[in-house]
Design brief:
This protein is mainly beta. Helix content is 0%, strand content 54%.
């Protein structure tokens, strides 16, 4: 079992920045990768970014490339999502997720709200 707790969400004006954190506990040593997803009201959940625990390869949705940066601190079992130049369309609940192998994610956090005002 892996427990994931997100933090760092809030209200920010367009053009501003936020940094989300996802603290993992439990059986984290065998995790393959961690990802960030988001879900806006009335929309399906969508992929935002992911990072491999081993090697640190990163992946981004086209909509956030150049603005968001995912990173990890292995010693703290924490993954971050630095979000710059935020836009109103970035408003959503952001979820952290973990998986043991390529494919569907196994564990999800409770989500943190990000609201970007215009």
């Amino acid at each position: 079992q892996v427990q994931l707790v997100e933090s760092g969400g809030g209200l920010v004006q367009a053009g501003g920045s936020l940094r989300l954190s996802c603290a993992a506990s439990g059986r984290t040593f065998s995790s393959y990768s961690m990802g960030w997803f988001r879900q806006a009201p009335g929309k399906e959940r969508e992929f935002v970014a992911a990072i491999r625990w081993s090697g640190g390869s990163t992946y981004y949705a086209d909509s956030v490339k150049g603005r968001f940066t995912i990173s990890r601190d292995n010693a703290k079992n924490t993954v971050y999502l630095q979000m710059n130049d935020l836009k109103p369309e970035d408003t959503a609940v952001y979820y952290c997720a973990s998986r043991y192998r390529p494919g569907p994610y196994d564990y999800w956090g409770q989500g943190t709200q990000v609201t970007v005002s215009s």
